[in-house]
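Design request, tokens follow.
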């Protein structure tokens, strides 16, 4: 009852203060935030496994006590008073031991509570630090914990900053693993998210920019695909033309696919039909090659005749020199 009265007093104070100036109020859900923290979830899972193990041990002890009680109930008529008291004392001792064990594991100061406190405290400290930073950055006057003992009869969703605290908590963990370049880009992204959160108009403008960028990227992808298709089509035509030329040079038969999907056998030689454009082109190339060969042959013949002429002139000179020398010798 006192907590409810205290809450209404706080609300009244906040309402009065809000009439005097603009008051910003926010709240968080600590349980929701803790569920979103990976380290806490993993450690809490391990703790739950321990708790299940403790519960199993308790069940085993309960079953042992139950067996002793059942045996005593059945054998009571056959036992002496001293044996009955002895067994009853053993049962009482085991029951007290079981209660102590339950208190040790699951009591208000038991292992489960203590380990949960140890597990939660470091994360809670980080969350409290982040909440203080958020309150200073965004000028919050009050930030409540929805999961605390303070009863909140109503809380509008727009005042919930739990997700923002989760992002801050996650980003603080990521910062330690980032390089300077990655950290700079991450901080810029965070600033943009904060600006969007504080100003809905910025969010709308950013949404339009993202839509334009997506449309532009889509148009570029379509154009690039059309270019790639044209390149592939041209390459296929060049390959097909080269195959036809090679087939005609070798005198082999190739298959030509029509637009309707039918195929005709086309033979380069011994065809009764009129020559095609490729046949004419091949004949022209052969004629041109023949002219080149004839020209080369004539050049070779001319070169050979010139060499023979040079050799004959050299022989004549040598013969003249020898004749002159013989004539000179005769005069002497």
């Amino acid at each position: 009852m006192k907590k409810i009265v205290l809450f209404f007093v706080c609300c009244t104070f906040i309402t009065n203060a809000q009439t005097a100036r603009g008051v910003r109020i926010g709240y968080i859900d600590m349980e929701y935030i803790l569920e979103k923290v990976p380290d806490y979830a993993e450690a809490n899972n391990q703790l739950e496994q321990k708790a299940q193990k403790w519960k199993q041990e308790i069940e085993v002890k309960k079953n042992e006590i139950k067996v002793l009680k059942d045996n005593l109930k059945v054998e009571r008529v056959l036992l002496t008073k001293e044996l009955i008291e002895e067994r009853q004392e053993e049962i009482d001792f085991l029951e007290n031991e079981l209660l102590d064990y339950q208190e040790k594991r699951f009591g208000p100061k038991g292992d489960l509570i203590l380990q949960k406190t140890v597990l939660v405290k470091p994360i809670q400290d980080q969350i409290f630090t982040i909440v203080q930073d958020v309150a200073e950055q965004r000028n919050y006057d009050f930030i409540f914990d929805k999961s605390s003992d303070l009863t909140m009869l109503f809380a509008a969703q727009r005042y919930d900053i739990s997700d923002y605290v989760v992002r801050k908590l996650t980003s603080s963990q990521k910062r330690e693993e980032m390089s300077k370049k990655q950290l700079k880009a991450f901080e810029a992204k965070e600033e943009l998210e904060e600006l969007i959160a504080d100003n809905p108009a910025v969010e709308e403008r950013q949404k339009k920019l993202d839509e334009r960028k997506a449309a532009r990227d889509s148009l570029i992808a379509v154009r690039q695909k059309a270019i790639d298709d044209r390149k592939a089509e041209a390459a296929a035509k060049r390959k097909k033309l080269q195959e036809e030329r090679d087939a005609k040079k070798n005198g082999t038969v190739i298959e030509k696919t029509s637009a309707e999907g039918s195929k005709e056998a086309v033979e380069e030689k011994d065809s009764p039909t009129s020559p095609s454009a490729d046949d004419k082109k091949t004949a022209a190339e052969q004629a041109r090659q023949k002219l080149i060969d004839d020209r080369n042959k004539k050049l070779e013949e001319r070169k050979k005749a010139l060499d023979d002429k040079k050799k004959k002139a050299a022989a004549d000179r040598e013969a003249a020199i020898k004749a002159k020398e013989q004539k000179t010798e005769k005069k002497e």
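Comment from the thread starter after seeing the answer: thanks! Residues 277-331 form the longest helix (55 residues).
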